[in-house]
Amino acid sequence: MEIVYDYPLYRPPSEADSMIFQVTLGCSFNKCSFCNMYRTKEYAERPWEEIKAEIDMAAKFYPNTRRVFLADGDALNLPKYRIIQILQYLHCKFPELERVSCYAMPMNLLKKKDDELSEIRAAGLHMLYVGIESGSDIVLRKVTKGATFRTIVQACQKARRHGYVLSCMVILGLGGKTYTKEHIADTARILSETAPDYVGALTLCLEEGVYDEFMTKFAEPFVTLDDIDVLDELDRLVANFNPKRPVMFRANHASNVYSIGGTMPDDRDKILTLITNLKAHPEMLKPKFHRRF
Questions:
Q1: How many CA atoms lie within 13 A of 289 on its CB side?
Q2: What is the pTM of this model?
Q3: Is the bond preceding 8 in cis, omega lying within 30 degrees of 0?
Q4: How many angstroms separate the CA atoms of 136 and 190, rounded?
Q5: Cβ contacts of residue 247 below 8 Å, gap of 6+?
Q6: Is residue 2 a part of any domain in this protein?
Q7: How far is CA 226 from CA 32, 188, 258, in A?
Q8: Segments forming the whole domain that contains residue 79
Q9: β strands within 204-270, DSSP E
Q10: Given 3-state DSSP classes, what are the helix, strand and coil percentages for the chain, each rounded to the nearest 5?
Q11: Is 293 inside any structural domain?
Q12: Tell me, what CATH number does 209's domain have?
């Protein structure tokens, strides 16, 4: 017996073994010009009766579930009472449940009051995936992120204050060749200031559905980075990422030119050495037809 999902369905790579419940459909913002994930969907909040029925069914067939991911891209946009209702029922039906997670936009974190985030955390939402994408206000504006350096920092710090585990994503190549310096310098700065528990670096791959929109919104010629340029951005990002606590850093997404990872700042030199070797031996890089966003 399986849950019938409303496709397309997305989840972070680290949620591969998680039970997924779609508590919302689509994304309430849905304007980021680089993202094609929910363009075929209209945002909707699913009725409690449907969510409850799916939890009941899953609990019958998968009672030992330990991890749950709440989809689609906007679970934290739900009212506090609905999120808590879902979390309490999940923990009731799955006695071995260890982690519940969801995507969280900076604007949704900022809209929730401190006491709301505290109550949601206490009810059992453990981990949030936040798309930072870039620390550069110029780049963020050109890709219609709906956030700024400062609002992203505020959102991440707010989540950390209330005890959430934070996993953040950034996108190499998002500023093209024109804004590569600002993009990486400010992204390293925002990561250093927020110091998430996990950081994942992806590489820009524009899908057909958003390519024209991305280029139009960028409002000037966008020059895509080649593989060596991407490695150069990664080199500068790692070199200037200085968190005050250990951060798990990964550039192993399917979009990346090579799988790289370690703990920052302890593994900085090891990662930089690997990047230098990859620049000297581009034949080691992943073939382009194996990469996707």
A1: 0
A2: 0.95
A3: yes
A4: 9
A5: 191, 195, 196, 197, 198, 199, 241, 263, 264
A6: no
A7: 23, 21, 14
A8: 13-281
A9: 247-251, 260-264
A10: 45, 15, 40
A11: no
A12: 3.20.20.70
At 202 the three-state DSSP class reads strand
Structure tokens at 124: 């059992």
CB atoms within 10 A of CB 276: 12
**Is the Cβ–Cβ distance between 284 and 258 less than 8 Å?**
yes
Q: Into how many domains does the chain fold? A: 1
pLDDT by 10s per residue, the chain, length 293: 568 899 999 999 899 999 999 999 999 999 999 999 999 999 999 999 999 999 999 999 999 999 999 999 999 999 999 999 999 999 999 999 999 999 999 999 999 999 999 999 999 999 999 999 999 999 999 999 999 999 999 999 999 999 999 999 999 999 999 999 999 999 999 999 999 999 999 999 998 889 999 999 999 999 999 999 999 999 999 999 999 999 999 998 888 889 999 999 999 999 999 999 999 999 989 887 677 76
The DSSP 8-state label assigned to residue 87 in this structure reads H
Distances (CA, A) of 84 to 63, 100, 158, 180: 20, 12, 19, 42
- Answer whether the bond into residue 106 is a cis peptide, omega within 30°: no
At 146, which amino acid appears? G
Interacting residues of 273 by C-beta distance below 8 A, sequence separation 6+ = none
Domain membership flag for residue 52? yes
Residue 262 lies in a domain: yes
